[in-house]
Amino acid sequence: MTHVNRRSVLKGAAAAGAVGALSQTGLFDFAKAWAQTAPWKPEKGAKLQLLRWKRFVQSEEDAFMVLVAAFTKATGVAVSVLNESLDDVQPKASVAANTGQGPDLFWGLYSLPHLFPTKVIDVTDVADYLGKKYGGWAPSAITYGKSGNRWIAIPMGYNGNVINYRESQIKAAGFQKIPEDTAGFLELMKGLKAKNTPGGMALGRASGDGNAWVHWCLWAFGGNLVDAKDKVIIKSPETEKALAYAQQLYATFIPGTASWNDSFNNKAFLAGELSLTNNGVSIYAAEKADADKNPKMKELAADTNHALWPIGPVGKPTEFHICYPMMAMRYSKFPQAAKAFMAFALEAENYDKWLVGAVGYITHPLNYYDKNPVWTSDPKLTIVREVGRRTLTAGGLGSVGERAASALADFLVLDMFASVCTGRTTVKEAIDVAERQAKRIYR
Amino acid sequence: MPEAVIREPAPAMAAPSAWSRLKVNRGWLAFWFMMPAAAFLVLFLAYPLGLGIWLSFTDARIGRPGEFIGLENYEWLVDDSKFLLAVFNTLFYTIVASAVKFAIGLYLAILLNNHLPFRAVIRAIVLIPFIVPTVLSAIAFWWIFDPQFSIVSWSLRQMGFIKANVDFLGDAWNARWSVIFVNVWRGVPFIAITLLAGLQTVQPSLYEAATIDGASRWQMFRFITYPLLTPIIAVVMTFSVLFTFTDFQLIKVLTNGQPAGATELMATLSYNRAILGSKIGEGAAISTAMIPFLLACILISWFGLQRRKWQHGEAND
């Protein structure tokens, strides 16, 4: 088994990173051949600017930049990559779409392209090409990528949001593994608290982790913001049950989760203060990256494991993983180059290496990549392979478009859970507030 | 020919054309000198303000111009509990923070006006919170208020005052007081230094006369310092209130409105709805709703404090 960590990837990247040395890895040969046969011929003198979410795992970004360098070498198209924190990609993209200038490519999250479906380039040909070649798209990738009959974005990957836990502390609380149902999960959380090793999940305005767990909870009990026709149905006994469950869960949390944003649980887990949380596998990646020089981290990495979410009364997975779609803007002067880049990135010769570099933090949207070595080289990462097929989409039963994005941006569900859990409002009041706001968004 | 000379005015004396009169007209010249400033104000202040107000009457979304919908956005907001909470938070935040900032600022200014050793150094140190970029200081406080790693909680725990960490930002009222504390910490230097400048314009002879008359320190403050400082207090507090009312960076970095909207200010709510939620019209309505509050504040300081007769060289009533 190859042991993949930041260091080994960096070594690989160092070998491949110097663009001149690319041919040694075979990547450049492939890139050159690809550029000659690919259906998308970049415009003369094309230059691309790409704005992406800021990496959480350094080795992922390193691997991505190798891929970018190979593309430039093969096609002559210079790609400058800008980074913005996850929450800031959307406003930037929105303003760019509004003013008609800015980066050619945006790489954001969830339903970003659906905020301005008319302002992005139709990439149906790219999606069809990739889908045919690589065993088809995961169902949620199709939902996120398509608007009506056409593809408006290429889902580049998912960030699986799973249960991160400490094996020793779960055992100390009397459990061998994470229970597979919500009732058992609550018992586990109670047990952890009783042992004075509480878990905790972000209940502040954490667009990633916070939204992931409250949506899981809402859906697990059969609650939904809207139905398939986008009619608001949040006011239901199922929602009440979900909120009551969250209240019980919150009582077992480590103090302070109401102010947590996406980074707090990482900090607390890495400091050994947290026995269980929900996150990408980036905590584990960080532990392993530092394991060589820090024996504490080595110990922590050996004790950290991941699990999929428990299943609630609805009887099927109700997970909510982040999807990262990439879109090309209509104002771009180089649409062919942009399409070529997206297709190039998802070709096996590039994408396989990138998945390895991301050490499980990124999951593929194309079924072919199930056999990527990252999923088997470390058994602790294997479960993350499934997230593309298991995740529900933003908006739940409803459409994935602008309205779902608005509801997420307003933290509609998250605030409903937070105000109940922190005792600011009653269950009924919180649902009323959410319903009223949802009705305006979905009118 | 002499007659002709008399009848026809010499060419030099011909009535000057409108253009040549304009060329030497000082008003006309002044108009052009003012143009850059006026253009600047119109372009960067009046136009955005007007546009913002117009947008608040539309259902515009990012990437799509809206249609005129009248007062619909406002009608919605009047019943929106999150908006009302944000209004309450903003008023509470502004009133409490401004009052505390004024009290501490005035105290510091009076203190610094005395003959202290290392006065120049101390004055420079007092300015530090104001110089540090808001986002940086907010991030520093973010760690200070961290639920798990707070230095304050840690110290109190070590000293045995508390058993569990203080939940600074997770509890609604703790969070409100915490952000007010940071705002005060940041805002005091501005007030202190400005008031100090005002204090130094007060003539020492007034105090000497008062001392001879047997005035106490409080009387000297009440009847000399305070009245002479009033104009500058009016200006500095107007600025302070305006800045506090429209605060954005601090909240955005420190709490982003959590827990569950307990620290949401009108400015952050407007940003969240308009930019993140792409409902430009509604966001503009929230911003526009701030204008009456700001106007009221300016008018109070203008009419209440500025129009003292002595400022115009007359005696006080």
Q: How is the main sheet of chain A built? A: 5 strands, mixed
- The CATH superfamily of chain B turns out to be MetI-like
CATH architecture of chain B: Orthogonal Bundle
Assigned CATH architecture of the largest domain in chain A: 3-Layer(aba) Sandwich
Strand content of chain B: under 5%
Please name the fourth-level CATH homologous superfamily of the largest domain in chain A: Periplasmic binding protein-like II
Structural class of chain A: alpha+beta
- Indicate the CATH class of the largest domain in chain A: Alpha Beta
Poorly predicted sequence stretches spanning 5 or more consecutive residues of chain A = 1-24
- Low-confidence parts of chain B: 1-5
Helix content of chain A: 40-55%
- Distance between the ends of chain A: 54 Å
Largest beta-sheet details of chain B: none
Roughly what percent helix of chain B? Answer: over 70%
Average pLDDT for all residues of chain B:
84
Notes on the structure:
The complex is a heterodimer of chains A (443) and B (317). Chain A is an alpha+beta fold. Chain A folds into 2 domains: 6-158 and 323-382, D-Maltodextrin-Binding Protein, domain 2 (3-Layer(aba) Sandwich); 162-320 and 410-441, D-Maltodextrin-Binding Protein, domain 2 (3-Layer(aba) Sandwich), CATH 3.40.190. Chain A is 47% helix and 11% strand. Chain A has 21 helices and 10 strands. In chain A, the strands form 3 sheets. A 5-stranded mixed sheet of chain A has the order 2-1-3-10-6, with helices on both faces. In chain A, strands 8-7-9 form a 3-stranded antiparallel sheet. In chain A, a hairpin with a 2-residue loop joins strand 4 and strand 5. In chain A, helix 4 packs antiparallel against helix 16, helix 13 (282-290) runs antiparallel to helix 14 and helix 20 (412-421) packs antiparallel against helix 21 (427-441). The radius of gyration of chain A is 22 Å and the shape is globular. The model of chain A is unreliable at 1-24 (pLDDT under 50). Chain B has helices at residues 2-7, 18-24, 26-55, 72-78, 81-113, 119-126, 128-131, 134-144, 151-158, 172-199, 204-212, 217-245, 249-254, 266-276, 280-306. Mean pLDDT of chain B is 84; it is low at 1-5. By secondary structure, chain B is mainly α. The termini of chain B are far apart. Chain B has a single domain (82-311), classed as MetI-like fold. Chains A and B meet through helix 5, helix 12, helix 19, helix 20 and helix 21 of A and helix 14 of B.
